[in-house]
Amino acid sequence: MQSMRDIKRQISSVENTKKITRAMKMVASAKLQKAQERAENAKPFFTKTKQTLAGITGGDTQDSHPLMEEREVEKVGYVVVTGDRGLCGPYNNKVIKKVEELTAARDEDVALFAVGNQGQRHFKRNGYEIISEYLDVPDKPGFVVAENIAIEIMELYREEMLDEVNIVYTDFESVLSHKVEVIELFPIEPPEQKEDAENMSKYLYEPSAGAVLNSVLPQYVTNLIFGSLLQAKASEFASRMTAMDSATENAEEMIDDLTLSYNRARQAAITQELTEIVGGAEALE
Amino acid sequence: MATMNVSIVTPERVAYESDDVEIINVRTIDGNRGIMPNHEPLITGLNIGIIRVKDGSGEDIFSATQGYMEVKPDEVTVLVGSAEHSEEIDVDRALAAKEEAEERLEKKHEDHIDERQAEIALEKALNRLQASKHHDFDQFE
Known about the structure:
The complex is a heterodimer. Chain A contains 5 helices and 6 strands. By secondary structure, chain A is α/β, with parallel strands linked by helices.
């Protein structure tokens, strides 16, 4: 049996851990509120953006835009959106697993764009080719971050360094439910035409198809990336909050158990002392 | 009179949504243009500019940044980086931004990216100031 002093030391160490996890939980939940608000506010924008794709690509044009050009795939790019820090439950791992699964299934060359330290570190260690890194993304990701990522990918796609690009991020459905999603960014493909498409007239591009697509396609991609970043941030905080909440609960349970054994040890010590005193007194008689 | 559904959506919020819009004026990459109900389906890019929407209850004015617009006969969707209603524009902030941008432009820059950014900032600030002055729309007609 452990001595009282050992147990006491253990209790105070678990207490300290609990303080930390509780503080982290509180920080995460405060940040989550804001991130959730942002993600929810951005959701109409995100869904509208996806909806307009049919319009953007369904226009009256013969020659396709370089960004919509489909070619034989030699190299695939993945934008991997993870968090910068750990201690957030399975959040980072789920994304990493998904990417590993996806890349394992491809015969083509694979290159990554790592958003967030966690993914970057993991894939670097495992010898993946990382084209560029976007680390320390602020808790409130600016539109600029998404723009920078979009510009870089577009450049590589245009130069035919990459023939397909996907983004892997965590979609925020609610505090308790988030799942890893994959969206294809390039080539920008027109969605399948529905049956009633025939009576829908074709979209006009004004002033010209080229000019409109040049202006609209990059923004479409940027919007998608920006939406993904916001979703991912909200998921990260929600995941961290849940993880830290259960860590705090576990710590409490541990403290309860330890307190129980501390009391038992104390009781045992008292009993022993009493027996010793009684034994001593009897010996004197 | 025919009406249409118009929504102006930014990453931060839905800035405007209405079912009974009579006309919407925007600045496209090709110049200003007004869209009325039953317009042919159209996709076009938008420049930094003022958006005016007229519905049953009156006219709303927004200062908007770049984006694009999808037009269907009964529905117009405007997706822009930001859109501020003329009444919520912080004039002091816009003025400060304008001065800062002008200052940055005055310094000769080797870096063209910086210069371009300053130009965009200036354009945005001027646009906000313009939108905040309700009466002063003659130049947009």
